[in-house]
User: Fold these one by one.
Assistant:
Number 1:
Amino acid sequence: MAEKWGDDYDPIETQEWLEAFSSLLQYEGAERAQFIVSQLMENAQKAGVEIKGAMPLLSPYCNTIPVEQQPSYPGDLALEARIDAINRWNAIAMVMRAKKDAGGVGGHLSSYASIATLYEVGLNHFFHGPTKDAPGDLVFFQGHSSEGNYARAFLEGRLSEEHLKNFRQEIGGNGVSSYPHPWLMPNFWQFATVSLGLGALQAIYQARFLKYLENRNLLPAGERKVWVFCGDGEMDEPESIAGLAMATREGLDNIIYVVNCNLQRLDGLVRSNNKIVQELEGVFRGAGWNVLKVLWDSHWDPLFAKDKSGALLKRLNECVDGDLQTAYVRGGDYRREFLFGGNEELKSLAADLSDEDITNLKRGAHDPLKVYAAYAAATKHKGQPTVILAQGVKGYGLGTTSAEGKNVAHNHLEMTDEELKAFRERFQLPLSDQQLLGLEFYKPDDNSPEVKYLQAQRKKLGGYLPARQVVSQRLKVPELSAFDAILKGTGDRTASTTMMLGRILTNLLKDTEIGARIVPIFSDEVRTFGMESLFRQIGIYSHVGQLYTPEDKEQLLYYREAKDGQLLEEGITEAGCMASWMAAATSYMTNRLPMIPFFTFYSMFGFQRVGDFIWAAADMRARGFLIGATAGRTTLEGEGLQHQDGTSLLAASSVPNCRAYDPAFGYEMAVIIQDGLTRMSRDEEDVFYYITAMNEKYLQPEMPKGVEEGIIKGMYLLKPAKEAKLTVQLLGSGAILNEVLAAAELLQKDFKVAAQVWSVPSFSELRHDGMHVQRLNMLTPESKPTLSYVEKCLQKHEGPIIAATDYVRAYADLIRPFISRTYTVLGTDGFGRSDTREHLRNFFEVDRYYIVIAALHSLAKDEKIPMSKVTEAMKKYKIDPKKPNPVTV
C-alpha cells in the first residue's frame, strides 16, 4: 500500500491502465475517451472514493492542443514577423521619446512586448472589424499595452507620426492618451480597460448582452465574438473572476478570455512559490469554462515527442514559477541544468541539444503557430466560454540584460544604446545607428509588402481595430405630457418616489417608439423597490426560458422568466449589474442599436461600491439612467449604518458627464427622466443620469406651472412667502424637502418669519453652472459680470439662506461659492443608525425643528433678531444643546 497519495507501488498495473487508455484514444477518439473518463470519475465518487488534490481540474503543464492537431497556418509568417518587429520598435521609440522629449510623462515597455504576438495573430486572422453591414467583434485590449495599438495604427495609416511623438501629451496638440480612454479618443477606443479587472467583467456581460438582444429579436448575434485580454496578475482582482460562473450558466460561447500569463505582476512574480497557470486553469475549469493552454513554442515539440516516459512533463509540473523565471533570465548552462539536470533520463533528452537549441526553447505566447491553433479552436468551440492561458515573458525581446523576464520589467522605461542595438539585431530591423539611437519611427512605404499585407488582412476581416464608430440613430422620445398621470400628483393618497418611478417605467415600456429599448436592471431587489409588476409585464430574461413551475404561479405577479424577457435581474452583484448597464448604455456604439438602461439599486451600494465602474462608464460615453433607490440617510428606517446613504450625490457630482438629481416629488422625477431621454436618446449627448428614489410615502403634489426649467437647472421656487419684516430662504431636496416645508410653517406660526421654500433637485447641476460662470467672469474681467443661476434665483429675495438635505453637508456646500450672504447648511454627516425616520432626523439634526433653529440663528448672525430668540426656540422644541454630535458619535 502506498504511504501517501501519488506514490506508485505497482507501476506495471499503472502502465497497463495507461496503455488501455492510449488505445481507447487512438482507436475510438477523444470524445469516447472523455466519456469513459467521466464515467470512471462519477463511479468513483458514487463509491466514496476521494479524488484527492485538484487533479480533475488540471491538465499537465503543456500545450492543450497536440502538435498533430494544429491547423496549418494561413498567413505569411515571414511578413508577419517583420510587421511584428516594426510595431515592437515603434512602441519602444514612442515611450522613450516621450520620456526624453516631454520630460517624464512615462509609459510602459514590457507589457506590449509580452502580448504583441497574441495581438498580431488576432489582428491578422481573427478579430473582425466593423463594416457597413456589421458592427464587428468587441475586443477589450489590455490597458497597459496601448503603445502597441498606437504603433499598429501608425503602420495602418490611422495615426500620424505627430500622434506618436505626442504620446501621453494630449493638451494643445495631436497627442494620444496613456491608456484606452474613449472620452479622450472617441474615434479609436471602445472600452476603458486600464483599471485592472473592469475589462474582464465588462466583457462577460457584453457577451451576454449580445445574446439578450438576439433572444429579444432586436439584433442577430451572428458569429460576433467578445475578446478580452488581461494579465495573470490582473486575475487577482475579484472583478476578473466574478462573472465566470454566469458565463458558463448562460452558455456564452461568444466570449474568449486571453490571459497573458507572463508570470509577473507589477513588482514581481504572481505566484513565486506556485504555478499561476495551473491555478487559473483550476479556477476556470471549475467554473465550467473550456480551457486551452499555450505554454511552450514549437521548439519544444520534438522534446515532448521524444519524452516517452513523461519525465520532462513531470519536471515542468513540479517546478514553481519563481524557478521557471530564474531559469529563463539566467539562460545558458543554468537553464540546461535546471530543466534537464535532474536525472539521467532528462539528461539523455537534452544530450543532442546545443546551447542555441536550449536558448530557443521559448514560451508559447510568442509563437504564432501555437497562438493561431488556440484561437482557431476557441472560435469554433460551442456551448461554453473559452479561456486561453498563454504563457509568455514580460518584456519579451527587450533582452535579459535589460528587462526581459526580470522583476523590474514593469517599471523599466529605458534602454541603453547597446540594448537598442541588440534589439535591432534580434528583430532584424533595417535601422541605421543614427535612426536607432535617435529613436526614429520606422514606417515602410505604403506599397511595401509589409503594409500591403497588413492592409489586406484587415480588409478581409472587415476593418480596423480598435475603432469606435457611432452611427447616428436618434430615437423619438415621449413628450412630457405622456407622464400626465404623474404630473397631476396622487391627490389625497401617499406614494413614494420609488412608486412614481415604477409608474414612469410602466409608461415608458408601453411606448410604441422606445418601449422595446428600455432595459430595466436590478440586482435582486425588485420586490424591495415595489416593482414586482414588471415580472408579469415584461418578464425576467433567461436564455433558456422558464424550466420550472414557480411556486407563486397562481398569483397575479408571479416570478416569470422568459427567453424574450426584458428585465435583467442579475442576482446579488452590483458590479455585474453595472457591467450589464454599461453594455446597454454603450449599445448605441457597440451594436449600432441605442438602448435605454435603468439600473435600480440600493443607493448606498451604488457609487460607493462600484464607483470605479461608474467612472469607466463615464469614460466610455455611456448613456442611461442609474437609480439610487431607498436613498438618503434618514429615509431608510430601521436599516442602519451600512445601508443608509449620505454620500452618493456628492460622489456623483464629481463625475463630469453625470447629471445627478435628488427629486422630492414624482413630477420632478418625470421631468428629469424626460429631459434625460431627450438629451441622451434624441439629441445623442454623451451624458448619463443618476437619480435618487425614496421608499418613504407622502403626498405627491401636482406640478406647479412653469417649473420645468428650474427642475432641470437644479432649483425653483416651490412656496413663495408674503412680504414680511423677517424673511429667510429655505432650500431642500429629496425627502427632507417636506421637513423644510414644515419648518416654513413653524417659522411663520411661532416667530412671524416669512420663509420662502426652494426645491433644489440638484446642487451639483447648480455647481456646474456656477463654476462655468465663475470661470467666464475671471477670464473676461472687463466685461459685465454674469450671474450664476443660483444668484439669478435668489437676487430678488432677501434674508439668509438655509439648506437641508438627507446627505452630508458637503453636498449642499457645493453652491457656497456662489452665495454672497449668510448660508447655513444642515446635513447627515456621520454614521447611520437603525431607528425611525423621525428619530433619525432629530439625531442628524435635519428635522423641521433644527431647520427653524438654523434659520433663527442665521437671522441673529445678520443682527435681525437677538440670539435669545434662538435659545427660546430651543426650549420650545426641547432641543438639548448637550446632545451628542452625530458626526463624532
Note: The chain has a mean pLDDT of 94.
Number 2:
Amino acid sequence: MFAVASVIGVFLSINRRGGSDRIRYWIVAWTLVLVHFGAQIASGLYTGIAGTFAVSVSISTLELAGVVLLLSLSLTFKDRKANRYLGCIIGGPLMIYVNCLIWNVQSRWIFVLCILVTTAGAMSLYIRFIRSLTPVMFFITAWCAVTAAWLIRDVQTGDGSLALYFSLTGLFTICGLIFWRSFRRFSAGVVLSSFGFLAWAAVFPTALFLATHHPEIKIHPEMWNIPKFFVAVGMLLTQMETESIKAGAMALNYKSLFELNVAAVYRISLEGQLLDCNPAFLRMFGFSSREEALTTNTRDLYAVAGDRKRYLDDISERGYVHSYEIRTRKRDGTYCWISESATLMREVEPPVILATAVDITPRREAEAALRSSEERFSTIFRKSPIMCAILRFDNGAFLDVNETFLEVMNKTREEVIGKTGVDVGFWQNEEQRREFARQLRLQGSVQNIRVTFRDGKGRQKEGLYSAESAEVGGMECIIGMMTDMTDYKALEDQLRQTQKLEAIGRLAAGIAHDFNNVLCIIKGFGELVVSHIQHDRKIARYLNNLLEAVERGAGLTQQLLTFSKTQRLQKTEFEADEAVQRIAKLLLPLLGEDILLSVTAESGQMVEMDPSQFEQIVVNLAVNARDAMPRGGRLSIGTSFMPGKLAHGAIRLTVSDTGCGMSESTRRRLFEPFFTTKPVGKGTGLGLATVYGIVTQVGGEITVESSEGVGSTFVLFIPATAPAQRAQIPEQAASAIADSVSHGTILVVEDEPPLRDALYEYLTESGYTVRVAANGKEALAIAKTFAQELKVVITDVVMPEMSGWDLVQELKRKNYDFEYILVSGYADDRILQYGVKTAGLSFLQKPYSFPGLISMVEEKMKSERPEKSLIAHG
C-alpha cells in the first residue's frame, strides 16, 4: 500500500505542476487500487457481513480501477461526453454483476442483462464514435458477441463467477494493448507498463486455474500484486519520458523561435546595448559572430541618429511598436530597411526591449521600382504618339486622356474629362457606344476596329481602335488606344493611284510593242516601194514623208516605253543641248496652246546618264510648270555651262515659269514623296520627288526659287563630261567594208506574217538568198537542211513556244557556224531577261530601218571575220 500511495503522491505532484485529464484519471485509478488493497486486508480480518462487504469493496474497486484505466487510454478519451457514456456502460453493469455475485443473488436474468448491456453498449458506442464498421472493428464485435454468448451460457449452467474473472482479465489486457498503441515507442516506461498490464490480466485466469486444478500449489498473496507495481512504475516512467519529450520539444521550439528563426530576434537595453541576438540578426547586419555583435551599441546601426530617438519615444509611450520601418546601417556600411516589432519589458530591472525584425529592403526597392514604373507609365501615357484614354465602363465618361488624344481631337482637357465619347464626337450616338461596350464585355478586349469620328473642328477622321477592360482604383474601366489613320488613308489612296498608273504603264508597254511591229511593217514596205520608184520623185517624196511619220511614231513608242518605266536604265553620253531641243518638240502638244515655250540651249557639253532619265527630268518640270499656269503663261528652258561647279564642271539646266508660285511651307516639302497641293485624284506627288532622286543619283544638285504670285525657277546642276566628238567613218573604210561583203543565205525567223514577207522581199531584192520560218521549230528544221549555205540568222526575240534566245542557244549547241541578229519591239528589260545583251549578240530595236538591217547583215557576211558584239537600235 505504501508503494501505491507513493505512486499517487507522484501523480498528484505532477498534476499540481500542470497536469492533464489523463493524469487525473490515473490518480483516480490508483486511488481505487489503494482502496482495493485496504479492502483486501480488511476482508482477511473480518467474517460474516463485514467480511463480505470488504470483499465486495475490494473486487468492485479493482473492477472500477480497470474501467478508469481503460477510459484514460480509450479512443474516446478526448471526447469527455463519449468517455462518460463508455464508463457508465461498462462500469455500471460490472458493479451490479459483481455485487449480485458476491451477495449471492439468485436472479440469473440480472447477470445476463449486465453481460448484454456491457457488450452491446460498448460496441455500439465505439462503432458510432469511429463512424464506420472497419474490418478490425467487425472482428472485435464478432469476438465480443461470441464471448458474451459463452458467458451467458456459463451463467445458465454454472455459478456465473467466470464472467468476473473474464471481465478483469479483459479490462487489463485491453489496457495493455491500448497503452502500447497510445504511446508507440520502445521506451522503458511504455514496455514495462504494457507488459505489466498483460501480466496483471494473466493473474486472474492463472489463479482460477491453480485453484481449480492444483489446489495444493500455494502462492503468497503478495506475489499476485507484483504486476500492479510494474504497471505503476511503468506509468511513472512513461510520464517522465513524456515530460522529457515535451521539454525537448519546448527546447526545439525555443531553438526554432530564436536560434532558427529567419527573422532577427534580439534583446537590447534602453541605452542601446545589445544583450542577446540570434543568427538571423548576425546575418542581417553582417556580424561574423555573436561576440562581435554584443560589443556593438545599436546606436551605430541607425542610418539617421534622429530615427533612434523617435523609436525610443514611441516605444516608451505605447509600450510596444508594430511593423516599425527604419533605415539601418550594416556592419560594412551599406544600408538596408527593416520592419521591427518590439515590446518594452518594464517588469524586469533594468527594463529591456525584446524585438524581432525582418529585412524589407527588397520590398522597399520593389515599391520604389513600382513608383518609378508608375511614373514611367504616366510619362509614356502622356507622351505616347498613340491616342490613349481611360474611361468608365458604365457610362463611357473619360477619366484621363493623353496629349496626343487632345491634339488629334482638337480639344482641351476640360472639354474631354468627364464627358462621354458621344459628347466629344468619338461615337455617333449612344447606341453605338453601348454596342461597343457590350462587345467589349463579352470578349474582354477588342483589337483594331475601324472607327470614324469627328474632331473639335468638325473634320471627319478615321482610326484603328483597340481597348481592354481593366480595374483602375477599384472601378471597372476601359483602357483605350487608337491610331489616327487619316493620313494613312490618304497615303492608301495615293498608293492606289500609283498602282493605277503602273497598270497603265504596263498596258502602254504592251501597246508600244504591238505598235512597233505595225510601224516596222509600214516602214519595211515603204522602203521597198521607195527602192522601186526612185524615178518618180513626187511619189518618192510622199513615201519619204510617210517614212518620216513612221520615225516619229517610233520615237513616240520609245517615249511611251520610257515613261511606262519598263525601259532599263543605261548610262550613255549624249549632247545635253540636243536632248533639250528634242524634248522641247515633244512638249508642245503636252503644254497646250496657251503656254509659250522658249528654249535656250547654250551649254555645248556632253552629259553621261540614262537618256530616259534626262527626259523625265525635263518633262516632269515642264508638267509641274503647266499645272502652275492654269490660265496660260511663259515656260523657259535653258542650258549653260558652269566650269567651276561640281568636279569637272556642270551643265546648268534652268526651268522657269510665270505661274502661281508657292509658299515657304510648300517649298520646304516640295520634294517629299506623295506630297502634292493638287486635289485628290489630280496628282500622285511623285513627279518632283522623281526629279530630285535622279539628280542626286547622278551626283548633281537642285534648287528652287519661288514666291506666291510670282512664279517658280528650278535650277539643276548636272555633272558634265568631255565635249561632243562625232565619230565619222572614212569613205574609204566604208567602201572597203562594202567590197568585202560576200553574199550568202539568210534565215529570217519572224512570227508576224506581213513583216516576215516584207523582210523576205527586201533581202531578196538586195541580192541575198532568204529562208523564212514562222517559229523556232521551223527554223531548226531549215537550219538542219541548209546548214552549209546559211550564214546569218535574223530572229525575233519574243515568240510563242520557243523564244529567239532559246533558238540561238539550240543552234549553238548543234555547233552551227552562224551569225545572229536578234530583233524585238519589247523594252530593254524584257530583252535582258533572255540574256541577249549579256551574251554580246547583235540586236535591233523595232521599228528598225531595212537599210540599217542590210548594213548589219553585210557586216555579218564579211568573210573570215571574227564574231563581234554589236547592238543597234532602229
Note: The first strand starts at residue 264 and ends at 269.
